[in-house]
Amino acid sequence: MKKNDHLTLIGMILGIVLIFIAIVIGGSFAGAKIFFSVSSLLTVVGGLIASLMVNFKTNELKEAISAVKTTFKREEQNISELVEMFIELSTIARREGLLALDGKIEELDDPFIKKGILLTVDGLEADAIKEILVAELYAIEERQKIGRNVIDKAGEIAPAWGMVGTLIGLILMLQNLDDPKTIGPSMALALITTFYGSVLANLFFIPLAGKLQNKTDYDLYIKQIMIEGILGVQSGQNPKLLQEKLEVFIDKEVEKQSETPTSVNEEVLTDV
Fold this sequence. Notes:
By secondary structure, the chain is an all-alpha fold. Helix content is 77%, strand content 2%. Residues 106-217 form the MotA/TolQ/ExbB proton channel domain.
């Protein structure tokens, strides 16, 4: 079930507000105007966009935009309900045979589970089903990694373009050293681009990349549970045993949140 994730937007707005308050407290409301520079913003944002266009393909940039949109949504999966569904499918398979599951396929909402049950009804062996579903996990991970890589790179490049803007400002300032009164304001203006680059990287791009990584880890974890359930149904496993096996994931989910993320090839092939 997808719901709006207001925490992402709240965090960004809160960061901007707190930075603004810090500026006002450290100076004055009128003095805060110096932090708004169109030329500095154009240097950082324009340079950042140009670098990303050089570094990535058009489809990768589009994937990044789609990935950012997903950070404002959260997909919740009730593992208990997932376990109950597989127990029901397992019971039907044991009582009436695997072909009886054909009538339940249209009732399944998740495409991944639907694909697994279709393969089961088609009579594929457990190893073949596992191989196909794990390949699907690889595809999901790689697809999500594309967008995340763009956001990661933006987090790397933004501070660098801030420094480029600062260097431009310093060069322009050094051309007017004959007027000492302009040195202070010119130096402040030169440093604003570094400020913009750091804020963009640390308040937007790096946190967004982290959130996308967490989303990928969670998606893969849920699909590992699905693979366990599908293989249990295919093998005609006793529903009680399958229930005990899948319920381990309910307790394990809390532990997973504190563990170092692992990729599909490290975890799926050992857990599934």
